[in-house]
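Run log // design_07
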């Protein structure tokens, strides 16, 4: 089965758990995800199936949107609610204006240190594996971009927020650093991803819905329409002759709609057959072939 499917990930499962579940439901071995969600987090988890796994390379820098909660009063070793408290709870007396003013300092391009419990590697070893063994985890700060970060409200020690960030940004680190700035400690209490790239909650289904559709032989109806994929790439439609050559990895001349370097190549309205890269003029070479 070839396609892109968006799962509304429940809390408690890792992204790999979801991939494994989908493999069993659809009886398809080639399944991958386009962006890890922590076990605690819920929401948009796009999956690529079959030959569409070849599209994963184009989503490495996808923008992400979140809604969540920051709990002030104590930090944790994982920077979220699943971790062990780093110390006793502290009294919290914050105003909404105070938290919003602090949030403003995190907007834009900032230096951020990834959490010790993360997939970042230290000499080839994921940091979380070292952290679980209580070994020292020393990660270097990296530059990330937080395009939007709005504190929606504050109730006692919990602030609800909405954020839109570039790839590589950890909202757990944002919560942890805000707690440090305020001197009371903080951690990420809840997180829901509402969008990744062009995929949002509207096109997501639950694992239960996928199972029900698969039982009826209708799982393909839950797939994202190919025309919605990679909207930044112009679409061109190949003739039958050109489609045949593309399937064999040969360069072809395609209708020139723009001066884009990469284009999506369709045969008909729904069959995405390749991502092609411009060689010169209207001559394109298939970079990724998505059909047999």
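design_07 sequence
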């Amino acid at each position: 089965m070839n396609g892109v499917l968006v799962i509304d990930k429940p809390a408690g499962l890792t992204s790999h758990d979801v991939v494994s579940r989908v493999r069993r439901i659809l009886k398809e071995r080639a399944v991958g995800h386009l962006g890890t969600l922590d076990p605690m987090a819920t929401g948009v988890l796009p999956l690529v199936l079959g030959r569409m796994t070849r599209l994963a390379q184009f989503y490495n820098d996808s923008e992400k949107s979140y809604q969540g909660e920051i709990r002030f009063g104590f930090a944790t070793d994982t920077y979220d609610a699943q971790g062990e408290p780093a110390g006793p709870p502290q009294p919290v007396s914050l105003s909404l204006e105070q938290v919003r003013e602090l949030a403003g300092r995190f907007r834009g391009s900032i230096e951020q240190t990834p959490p010790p419990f993360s997939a970042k590697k230290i000499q080839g070893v994921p940091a979380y594996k070292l952290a679980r063994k209580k070994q020292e985890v020393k990660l270097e700060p990296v530059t990330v971009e937080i395009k939007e970060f709005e504190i929606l409200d504050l109730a006692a020690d919990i602030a609800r927020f909405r954020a839109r960030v570039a790839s590589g940004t950890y909202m757990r680190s944002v919560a942890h650093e805000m707690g440090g700035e305020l001197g009371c400690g903080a951690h990420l209490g809840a997180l829901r991803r509402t969008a990744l790239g062009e995929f949002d909650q509207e096109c997501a289904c639950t694992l239960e819905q996928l199972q029900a559709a698969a039982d009826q032989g209708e799982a393909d109806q839950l797939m994202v329409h190919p025309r919605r994929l990679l909207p930044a790439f112009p679409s061109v439609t190949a003739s039958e002759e050109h489609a045949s050559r593309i399937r064999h990895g040969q360069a072809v001349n395609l209708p020139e709609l723009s001066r884009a370097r990469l284009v999506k190549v369709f045969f008909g309205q729904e069959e995405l057959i390749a991502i092609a890269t411009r060689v010169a003029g209207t001559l394109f070479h298939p970079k990724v072939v998505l059909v047999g």
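The chain has three domains: 3-61+198-224, 64-194, 228-289.
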